[in-house]
């Protein structure tokens, strides 16, 4: 069963196009993580917040990524990390057009 990882943290930037340019190698590397399906990148420059919503094939894959990525971003000086892992209700998500085309509902 797929699991969703929600992460957010305080960050002073970059945001927007500059963020896309500076983090493109990181984005490509995320594609290589075990069990990774997709990520939606989030940012709020007005509040100096960033993060993402990730979908993983299993809870174990989400937990492993959370542990690794928390260490990585802590090494960048980011310490106020909020993270949660959720089960997904695929039938309801399909009804509301959630991007789960590869999952059984």
From TrEMBL:
Signal peptide location: none
Protein name: Monooxygenase YdhR
Coiled-coil blocks: none
Pfam families: ydhR
Gene Ontology molecular function: any one: monooxygenase activity
Membrane-spanning residues: none
Enzyme Commission number: 1.-.-.-
UniProt xrefs under InterPro entries: Dimeric_a/b-barrel, YdhR
Annotated keywords: Monooxygenase, Oxidoreductase
């Amino acid at each position: 069963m797929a699991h969703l990882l929600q992460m957010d943290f305080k960050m002073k930037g970059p945001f927007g196009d500059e963020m896309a340019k500076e983090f493109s190698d990181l984005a490509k590397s995320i594609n290589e993580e075990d069990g990774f399906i997709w990520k939606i990148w989030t940012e709020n420059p007005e509040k100096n917040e960033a993060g993402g919503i990730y979908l993983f094939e299993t809870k174990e894959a989400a937990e492993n990524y959370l542990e690794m990525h928390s260490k990585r971003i802590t090494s960048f000086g980011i310490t106020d990390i909020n993270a949660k892992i959720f089960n997904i209700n695929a039938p309801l998500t399909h009804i509301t057009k959630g991007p789960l085309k590869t999952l059984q509902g």
